[in-house]
Amino acid sequence: MTTYADRTFTPPERIRNFCIIAHIDHGKSTLADRMLQLTGVVEERAMRAQYLDRMDIERERGITIKAQNVRLPWKVDGEDHVLHLIDTPGHVDFTYEVSRALEACEGAILLVDAAQGIEAQTLANLYLALEKDLTIIPVLNKIDLPAADPDRYAAEIAHIIGCEPEDVLRVSAKTGAGVKELLDEVVRQVPAPVGDSDAPARAMIFDSVYDTYRGVVTYIRVVDGRITPRERIRMMSTGATHELLEVGIVSPEPKPTEGLGVGEVGYLITGVKDVRQSKVGDTVTSQRKGATEPLTGYREPRPMVYSGLYPVDGSQYPELREALDKLQLNDAALTYEPETSAALGFGFRCGFLGLLHLEITRDRLEREAGLDLISTAPNVVYRVVRDDDTEMTVTNPSDWPTGKVAKVFEPIVKVTILAPSEFIGAIMELCQSRRGQLGGMDYLSETRVELRYTMPLAEIIFDFFDALKSRTRGYASLDYEEAGEQEADLVKVDIMLQGEAVDAFSAIRHKDDAYAYGTSMATKLRELIPRQQFEVPIQAAIGSRIIARENIRAIRKDVLAKCYGGDITRKRKLLEKQKEGKKRMKTIGRVEVPQEAFVAALSTESTADKAKK
Question: Out of the domains of life, which is the source (predicted)?
Answer without folding.
Answer: Bacteria
